[in-house]
Amino acid sequence: LQDAKGQLWQFSFGRINHQGWRTMEASLGPNQDWPNQPIGYTATSIAYPIKLYALILDGYTSDTAFSGSVYVDDLEAISQ
Q: Which residues pair with 2 in a beta bridge?
């Protein structure tokens, strides 16, 4: 995500270890453990409003990249 001050943040949706459609959620709490963190700076709070900057998938085992397809649909933000 990118916040109102231009700070980039990363928040994890967790591991994709399933097949078929499944709801995945990422909590936007700035005080969570790695890999949820600010990128490049040491910001301690998120300046709203925010916008989606990128979706990133990583996956390697024994220096071999994972393969397959990932579909993304119906992204939504829910404020509590």
A: 8, 51
| 79 close to 48: Cβ distance less than 8 angstroms | no
> For the segment 36-79, what is each residue's pLDDT rounded down to a tens digit?
999 987 789 999 999 999 998 877 677 777 778 888 998 888 87
- pLDDT, one tens digit per residue, over 4-44 is 999 999 999 998 888 899 999 999 988 888 889 999 877 89
* Alpha-carbon gap, residue 44 to 52, rounded angstroms: 19
Provide the terminal-to-terminal Cα distance of the chain, rounded to the nearest Å. Answer: 18
Distance set, CA 3 to CA 50, 53, 68 (Å): 4, 9, 31
Q: Which residues contact 69 (CB under 8 A, 6 or more apart)?
A: none
Contact 17, 70 (CB under 8 A): no
